[in-house]
Amino acid sequence: MKIAAAALAGLLLVGGGAATAAQAASQSEPASAAVTQQTVLSADAALRIAEAVQKEAAKQKQRVTVAIVDRSGATRLILKGDGSGPQTEESAKRKAFTAVSMGRPTSELAKGITGAGPSIADIPGTLFLAGGVPVASGGAPIAGIGVGGAPSGDIDEAIARAGLKAVDGKLG
Degrees (nearest 5) of the Cα angle 105, 166, 107? Predict the structure, then answer.
């Protein structure tokens, strides 16, 4: 019992010393080195995009799913349209992820993929089919929109661009 108490006391001492060193280091660094600010797509903007996507899909008589991811690739919103297939959710998420990761529409990225050897298409979670567009603010990607479910990626991408138009001009 005494050994365990002594070991625990030693851990507390080491832990306390580490916290003190970390506090001292953070006090000597300027705040800007420890904190960054990022521009993010608001929940309201994501909803406007999704609504515009589904409205355009209905206009084109397409049953699609829209996915919106943030800059880190985390899913912010998924909206499955009525009658959209089970594969559309994964397709939309991966297209959105690819668009924000690479900062370009997936249709452009798909053109650079060849069948010979390893390529960026081998990165897990990506999908190099048309239908994904980045959302940019200040020239940098902050989110991705992915649409899946139309019979052609070109149609998916046109629908995704309709969603982007819903917030175009409102981004910094």
Answer: 15
Length of the chain: 172
Distance between CA atoms of residues 44 and 103, nearest Å:
22
Sign of the CA dihedral with 150 first, then 134, 87, and 129 last: positive
- Check: CB of residue 170 under 8 Å from CB of residue 44: no
Closest CA to 84 of 38, 147, 162: 147
Angstrom CA distances, 103 to 51, 56, 115, 139, 143, stand at 23, 23, 22, 9, 9
User: CA 158, CA 151: separation in Å to the nearest integer?
Assistant: 12
- Three-state DSSP at 21 gives helix
**Secondary structure class of 155 (helix, strand, coil):** helix
What residues in the chain have per-residue pLDDT under 50? 1-26
Interval 3-36: pLDDT, tens: 444 433 333 333 344 344 444 444 555 556 798 8
pLDDT score recorded for residue 121: 83
